[in-house]
Amino acid sequence: MTVFPHTVLCVDDEISILNALKRLFRKEEFNLLLASSGVDALKLLQDNPVHMIISDQRMPGMSGTELMSKVKELYPDVIRIILTGYTDVDTITESINKGHLYKFFLKPWTGQSLTLEIRQALDQFDLLQANKSLHQKVLEQNEAFRQINDNLENLVKERTHYVEIQNQALALSHAILEDLPVPIIGVSTELMIVLINKAVHEVDTGIQIGRPVSDYLSEDSEKKIIEVMESGIQQNLSRTSMGSCLRNIDITPLSGRFFGRGVVLTVKGCT
Fold it and tell me: Are residues 119 and 192 both part of a single domain?
């Protein structure tokens, strides 16, 4: 049994008309359902996926336009076509204006024109459904992009907050280091002085950032600094000349991701 992509429902209280439509559409590539009243048509619509309904206008109990109004309310995507006589044109025109109908055909209709119009209408149905599906996909993608943007904004806020905290911590660390009563000197792998605090100036006012440590310490002291950086083991310089005194200097290596990239000199005493 061939399965077609569309189903067309024909409604007419005259069985002869239904049989004529059945013969006309027997070679068309759609499933055909037949109903002899509006009530029967609504039952078929409830149980079957119908894509188009073609109905006579003048039927007992429920007219074609009344049926189409209900179909539009319950199944708005279904294409609705009326077959009618000249005397019903005003009623049909009003129904079209209200959006109840896709099109109407005046009796007597010709099989060729009716068949052609049905084919075109089903193509229109497919196009509308494709556009509807595409629109839905666009809405879903827009929603996905909105969620991504919201997540990105939240992430940026979190990272910004984290950076602000880090900056505050860094500023506080610098302030604490600056005010420590113990002279602190930072030395890089190039044996350059990269950090000093206020207390250093009490030891030697000439010590400056960016100068080589050799300007202030002996060659043996430099060698020990290199040993500490390479080994990661703290050492001490005893009675080392710095400023106007002999001083003890602790050489402490940097640790973690800064291992091997510098040391901290802690200057003590004056003899």
Answer: no
Q: Which of 67, 102, 133 finishes a domain?
A: 133
Q: Domain of 81: which CATH number?
A: 3.40.50.2300
Residue 266 has a pLDDT of 92
Structure-block tokens of residue 224: 């020990």
Last residue of a domain, one of 99, 115, 133: 133
pLDDT tens figures, 12-56: 999 999 999 999 998 888 999 999 999 999 999 999 999 999 999
Q: Which domain holds residue 39?
A: 7-133
User: E strands, the chain, where?
Assistant: 7-11, 31-35, 52-56, 79-84, 103-106, 184-188, 193-196, 235-242, 245-253, 262-268
- Do 129 and 187 belong together in one domain? no
| Of 57, 39, 49, nearest in space to 96 by CA | 57
Q: Look up residue 150 and give its two tokens.
A: 């919201």
Beta bridge partners of 9: 33, 53
pTM: 0.54
